Task: structure prediction
Amino acid sequence: EAQVTQNPRYLITVTGKKLTVTCSQNMNHEYMSWYRQDPGLGLRQIYYSMNVEVTDKGDVPEGYKVSRKEKRNFPLILESPSPNQTSLYFCASSSPYRGPPYNEQFFGPGTRLTVL
Amino acid sequence: KNEVEQSPQNLTAQEGEFITINCSYSVGISALHWLQQHPGGGIVSLFMLSSGKKKHGRLIATINIQEKHSSLHITASHPRDSAVYICAVGTLKLIFGTGTRLQVFP
Result:
């Protein structure tokens, strides 16, 4: 089954404790991206990647790191989480320069993060 | 002013009604996406379009590049269409609207 998986789905942590949210896709998509969703602000892009070892900043990259060492995986790293990073996080993937349906974004189920 | 504006923010309809959700943007774009977020939180891509019109079942999406405007239409609405509909512009770097919450009552 074609899917994007994220782990963990729920996480409560404390300020300053490094964490990683994993994202994996099994569709051989070139493009992967991380978004956060906050009430009243909607979805905002954190980082995206168009290929292995190629990453670029979205609108809200501060406080986050990413890596793309393998095509299927795109982990989101919070080196020193703060309460303002409490949010719902989504990973997505696609092949944006192929025809439909491959160019449409497949979203993971979301990770709800609370930083105390 | 947000670069992507959706209207209305909230929409209530009776089952069977024709629904229109609007998206206006102020930036040059290569593509526009319509997404559906279910009450449980999951997000599904409905359409990605760069010109003209696309149809999938009871859903129709149109885009007017000159006017920087897109519409999502739902024909014969059903309670299972109740969700948040989100417009986004871009191909690699995406900018999102804040969504339209639709509730369809039997």
Observations:
- Chain A has a mean pLDDT of 95.
- Residues 84 and 115 of chain A are 8 Å apart (CA to CA).
